[in-house]
Amino acid sequence: MYNTLLGINTSMSFVIGSPCVGCKDTKCVEVCPVDCFYEGPDMLVINPDECIDCALCEPECPVDAIWSDDELPPEQIPFIEINTRMADIWPNITETKEPMAHASPYSLEEAIVIGEKHVEDEEQ
Fold it and tell me: pTM of this prediction?
């Protein structure tokens, strides 16, 4: 579903949320049959226009940072816009790399601020 207020697609199959920020474990990307993952400096995002809702990535994430849109916790909602916008800008990733950390060093609030800063930086 296209949200005219935000100017983005808010209908997502899967969303990467706050546990990925600062961790950026890439085990999920190798199982994706359509290569819909994109890599930022400190997190991954899923392109909602490319994701086919196969659910192969969700159990691969060791930090439980991937949710289906119908199971997305309310506090992770800001990551819908972060995933959608940054997937159009960041490069595609299809191979596993070393994670930055074994878990995100950031609180939920800090991770949201970092993600929203990426979006703001690209709008300028």
Answer: 0.89
| 3-state SS track over the chain | CEECCCCEECCCCEEECHHHCCCCCCCCHHHCCCCCEEECCCCEEECCCCCCCCCCCHHHCCCCCEEEHHHCCHHHCHHHHHHHHHHCCCCECCCCCCCCCCCCCCCHHHHHHHHHHHHHHHHC
CATH 3.30.70.20 fits 2-123, yes or no: yes
Q: Are strands 37-39 and 44-46 parallel, antiparallel or unpaired?
A: antiparallel
Give the pLDDT score at 47: 97
Q: How many degrees, rounded to 5, is the angle at CA 69 between CA 61 and CA 16?
A: 35
Residue spans of the domains in the chain: they are 2-123
What φ, ψ does residue 94 adopt, rounded to 5°? -130, -5
Taking only the tens place, the pLDDT of each residue in 29-83 is: 999 999 999 999 999 999 999 999 999 999 999 999 999 989 999 999 999 999 9
Q: If you count them, how many residues does the chain have?
A: 124
